[in-house]
Structures are given as structure tokens and as C-alpha cells.
Amino acid sequence: MANLLSPRKYTCPKAQGTIYHHGAHVVDWTPDGHDPVLWMSETSPLDSGSAIRGGIPIIWPWFAAGVNGISAPFHGFARLSEWRLVRTSVTDEGITAKYLLIDACPQKYNESYRLTYEVKLSDEFEAALTVRNTGNTRFSFEEALHTYLRVGDVREVVVTGLNGSTYLDRATGHAIGPHPQKGDVTITEETDRIYHSTNDIDVHDPVGGRRITVSRTGSSDAVVWNPWAEKSQSSPDLGDDDWVGMLCVETANVGEHAVTLNPGKEHTIGFTLRLSALEPVE
Q1: Which of 83, 93, 269, 270 sits at a 20 to 30 Å CA gap from 259?
Q2: Are the CB atoms for 135 and 162 separated by under 8 Å?
């Protein structure tokens, strides 16, 4: 049986948070005076042999089954690896934690690299993943910070900031596209879209009574995902009605936007989450 995981919990006057070394996985960010911002499955297996369902999984070095369609494990091995905590800082202003992963899983990915993941939890949330090529040959990878946002009712959510962009549709039974996004995004069925956009994204959550803004850096793609009812009911680490209370807005570089690094070079992908009062969507 795999070892059960123990999280590291942080508290400061402006926020609290919880992070596992397993996958350097952030599972909670709760700013003072607010409800939790990240969604977590109550049925997620919290053991060293499984991926955690919810929070912010680190997807690397491939997305889904990779550009070749056969890479395993699904979404890469970074979220299944044990990262090393190299620095923490807790002040009145916020919490900073820095994690490191070096040359893990060479049987799956025989490249020389160093991954550095830094998160800051305060009245805003920041995450940055830096990949450095420490070898002698160039290599390519896909990446995503797979952020599960907690919402009151996903059927009432309106996502703005993607109008006019194009997307690939990965939902069951849908034509992959690319398709043009016309107007705002609403969730009315299983949704699994890769948007080619660098814009800020606003998640307007009327039931939750707030707006969540996702600002991305080093990212050419944004993935919007919700499993809807049928997939929730068929997934062992999701409750039957879990789909109602969450929406994934992922910061990503996938497919044609996979990153190629020459020896000695590095690349950083990251995002910031901000909360604000809900205003009418124009």
C-alpha cells in the first residue's frame, strides 16, 4: 500500500494555505475574510502512488497523453513526484514556499533538467514554474498549472476574456476544431477546451458572490475544463455532484505551443489569482 501523505499548513494574517511535497501540490489558498478559492475533491486518494484531485496539479513534461498520444502517466510525472522544499518564509504580508525537482523519472524522460516551483500566498496568489535545461542537448516539453477554482454553481458562471480567441475542443463527441470563441464562455455541458490566448481571464461567480481573475505569464494557452455530471459519476476520485462546484482554468503551453529549451536556458510559466467584488458582466 502506498504511503499516506501529510500536508504542510501555513498561516499568516493575510491568508492560509496547504501544500503537499507530493507533486509540490497546493491544495488550499484562503485569503483572510474569504471562502477557500481552490476546489478539492473529498474522495481524492491522498497517497504517494496517486495524483491528488483538486488544488493545483503541476502538469509536466506532457499534457494528457502528450503530443504523440501515447505518453504515460497521464499528464506527466511531476504531479506524482516527491519535490524538495528548499525555502519557506512566513511574514505578516504572506507566505512563500519554493520547491525543487531534479531529473526525476529518467526512465520516462531522459533529459537533464531542474524544475523550480515558487508559490506566494497572501491577499493574492502567485505561482511560477521555472524549467532549466541543465544538459547538453535541447529538449521540448508541454506544461500546465491545472488550477481547480471553487465556484458556487458552475452552471451560473460566466467566463470573460476569451472572446475572439480560438480553441480546440477535447470534449467527448465534439469536433476538435479550431473553433472561434464568440462572446463569453458559459458551462452547459462537459467542457474541455484549449484556448489560444494570453489575455487575463475573469471567472464571474454569482452564486459564490465574487470574481476571480487569472493573469498568466509565459503562457500561450488557457484550458477551461469541467467534467459535467456523467464523468463525475464515473470517476472514482470525484463525487457525483462535484462538477457543480468547480471550474478549472489552467495556465498552459501545450500542443503546437510546447516549449523547446536549448542547453543552459530556462523558461518560466506562472499566474496570479485575484479576488474582487462581483459586478455585472457587460
Answers
A1: 83
A2: no
CA pair distance 82, 248, nearest whole angstrom: 24
Longest alpha-carbon distance in the chain: 53
pLDDT number for residue 1: 44
Please name the residues in contact with 282: beta carbons below 8 A apart, sequence gap of 6 or more. Answer: none
pTM: 0.97
Cell of 260: 523547446
Sequence letter at residue 214: V
Query: Which 3-state string (H, E, C) describes the chain?
Result: CCCECCCEEEEECCEEEEEECECCEEEEEEECCCCCCECECCCCCCECCCCCCECECEEECCCCCCCCCCCCCCCECHHHCECEEEEEEECCCCEEEEEEEECCCCCCCCCCEEEEEEEEECCCEEEEEEEEECCCCCEEECEEECCEEECCCHHHCEEECCCCCEEEECCCCCCCCCEECCCCEECCCCEEEEEECCCCEEEEECCCCEEEEEEEECCCEEEEEECHHHHHHHCCCCCCCHHHHEEEEEEEECHHHCEEECCCCEEEEEEEEEEECCCCCC
Q: How far is CA 23 from CA 6, 20, 175, in A?
A: 12, 7, 33
- 10 Å CB burial of residue 22 (0-12, 13-18, 19+) is buried
pLDDT (tens digit per residue) in 191-212? 999 999 999 999 999 999 999 9
